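User: structure tokens for this one?
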Amino acid sequence: MQEFEKWLARVLLLNSALALAVSLGLLGPQQAGGALAVVFGVAMLGFLAAVLSLRRMISGLIGGIFYYLPQVGSYFPYDGSWQFSVKAGVSLGLVARFGHGVFVLNVVALVLLAATATVLVWRLRHRPFSQAPSAR
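Assistant:
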């Protein structure tokens, strides 16, 4: 499981580097105002989480969950009103069209979110007794 955790941290590092390149306009068009701040913030969170995960810290896995979570779903209404989309890193989506808009499920982010959560649960269950919280 330790090798899988290391691989997952490397994927997170690569994914966050791609997100950083997207936010800075190196890959694709330059992000505008609020979108730039959100994508840049998510990219930096992913980068920090990847570094902590490579050091085998549980906080890195928690950061990875918070990195992938906003990427799982995007919503684009037909009337141009409020929309939600964080496109950072690698994306492969399933599209559902409704009468009022389009919902996109990012399958890559969903799979990586599930893998990160699985590793986190495994790490919490199998940590040494000396690291377990005290029952005082």
